[in-house]
Amino acid sequence: MRQHPGWATGIGLLVFSVALVVWARTRPGFDPYGWLVWGRQTLTASLDTNAAPSWKPLPYLFTVPYALAGHYQMWLWMFTSVAVSLSGVVFAGRIAYRLTAAPPERRWAGIAAAVFAGLALLGIQDYSHYVLSAQSDPMIVSLCLGAIDCHLSKRHRWAFALGALAALGRPEVWPFLAVYSIWAWRAIPSMRWLIGTGSALIVLLWFGIPAITSRTPFVAASNALDSGRALRGDKVTGTIRRFLDLYAFPLELAALLSVVLAFLRRDRVTLVLAGGVVAWVVIEIAFAWHGWPGLARYMFEAGAVMIVLAAVAVGRLLADPPRLAGVPQWAGAAVVAVLVLSLVPAAISAARTEHKDLHAQRARTSEIDRLAGIVRGLGGAARLSGCGEPLTRLEYQTLLAWTLHVNVATVGYKYSEAIARGTPIVLFTPVPGGGWKVQAIHQVRPDCRTLP
Question: Using CA atoms, how far apart are residues 112 and 332, in angstroms rounded to an integer?
Answer without folding.
Answer: 13
